[in-house]
Amino acid sequence: MDGQIEQARVGSPAEVAQKLRILVGRLRRRLRDASAMGGLSAPQASALARLALTEPSSASQMAGAERVRPQSMARTLAALQKEGLVRREADPDDARRQMVFLTDEGRSVALGVRAGRQEWLAEAFEQRFTDAELRVIDQALTLLERVVEP
Prior knowledge:
Layout: H1 13-35, H2 42-54, E1 57-58, H3 59-66, H4 70-82, E2 86-91, E3 94-102, H5 104-128, H6 131-148
Antiparallel strand pairs: 1-3, 2-3
Helix pairs in contact: 1-2, 1-5, 2-4, 2-5, 3-4
């Protein structure tokens, strides 16, 4: 694009939706990769970041939110517990279920995960876009907020 914003044909709503869906998936994978740090796998880092937002949570709730099988989340949480990053307690409302909490160390790592994602994305924007292009992206994000508004 050579710093110029192309004047391309506007696709149909279905075409634009497909391009956005594909891009969001690719961006999500890149952000997950950027957050893998300190020997944690991408799923472990993602689970910590998710737990920081939804603590406490059950393993099944986290599996649903992360869109993984409950068995996969159970393995991820077991590894995090072994590292001392999460702890489990019986649910006071249902003793058969365990709730997952971050430890102090887990909370610190989760903040680092979030900062790593933010840093990667900000650096990518700085390196790959001109100021004019960043303004267009910012405007597009404002418009895209309508998709998720009630």
